[in-house]
Amino acid sequence: MPEFGVGVLLPAIVQAVEWTTLPHEFRRPGFSEHSINQKRGKPLDSFLEGPIYVSSLDLLFVTDIPCGRIFSIDSNANWTLVTEYDGEPNGLVWNHITKKIGIADFKQGILEDDPISKELKTIVARFQGERLNGPNDLVISADGVIYFTDQGMTGLQDPTSRVFRLYPDGRLQLLISNGPSPNRLVLSRDEKALFVAMTRDNAVWYVPLLSDGSYGIGGPDGMAQDADGNILVAHSTLGLFMKIKSPRGAHTTNLTWGGPSMNVLYIVESETAAILRVDWHCQGWLMKLDKEENFWTK
C-alpha cells in the first residue's frame, strides 16, 4: 500500500459508497440541447455536475446541466430545487465575499446566484466583443479573483479553448488560449499556481500564475501497470495518487469536500444522478484566507 500523507497508509483503491440519488419527481426523461450536442443524441433525465459544499448553510449544491437547474442537498439527503432557468449550468463556486454562488454556464457565461433571494445575474458573457465558447468550471482565490475554463466543444483536433482570470473590478485576463478542452480547476494552496484538467488531452496542466502568463513546469512522466489493469503515473509535480472506485460505474465527473469537519469527499456520478461519498483520513482543502485558517472555518 502506498504511503499517503505523514504516517498514514491507505490502500491503492478506496471504495466510494452511494449516499443519495436525484429523486424520481425531479427526473425529466427526454432530449435537450445538451443531450443532442454533447451526448450524441442520447436522451437524459438529468446530468449532475459542479458539486460545492457551503459550510455556513450546511448544504451541498449540484447542477443539472440539460435542465438548467441547481439543487441543494442537506445532511439528511433531502433535495431542494434552488433555481431553474434557460441555461446549461456546470461548475459552481461559493463566493465568500459576495455570499453568492458563482456559476460557469455553457450557454450563458459566468453567472451569479443569490441562494436566499434567488436573484440570478450575468457577470461575464463576452471577451473582446465575442461570446464565450462555453464555460465549464470556476474557482475563486482568497481575494476574490475568479479563474474559469471556457471549454466549448474543442479537443485535440481544435486545441483553442481558454482559461480566464476575472478580477473583482470586472477586468478579464486571458491566461491560456491553446487548451484541448480545459475542464476542472484547482488553485495551489499558496495560490501561486493553477491546476487545469485538460480532458481531451488526458492530462493535468500546471500553470504558475506569473505576471507574463507563461507556464509549463512539470507533468506526468513515468508509468507502470498492475495486474488489475490500473495505470500508475509518476507526476513530476504532483507525485503519485490513488484510485477511488465507484459502485455505480465509470461516469464520475466531479467532486468536492464537505461535511461538518470537511473530511467527506462527495463525488458526482453524472449519468445515474447519484452522489457518492468517501470518508477521508484528513480535512480537504478549499482555499486559504489567512495563514492559519481555511475557507470553511470562516
From TrEMBL:
SUPFAM superfamilies the record matches: Calcium-dependent phosphotriesterase
Superkingdom in the source lineage: Eukaryota
Domain annotation SMP-30/Gluconolactonase/LRE-like region: ranges: 49-268
Pfam families: SGL (PF08450)
InterPro entries from the UniProt entry: 6-blade_b-propeller_TolB-like (IPR011042), SGL (IPR013658), SMP-30/CGR1_Lactonase (IPR051262)
Transmembrane segments: none
PANTHER family from the UniProt entry: BLR2277 PROTEIN (PTHR47572:SF5), LIPOPROTEIN-RELATED (PTHR47572)
Protein name in the entry: SMP-30/Gluconolactonase/LRE-like region domain-containing protein
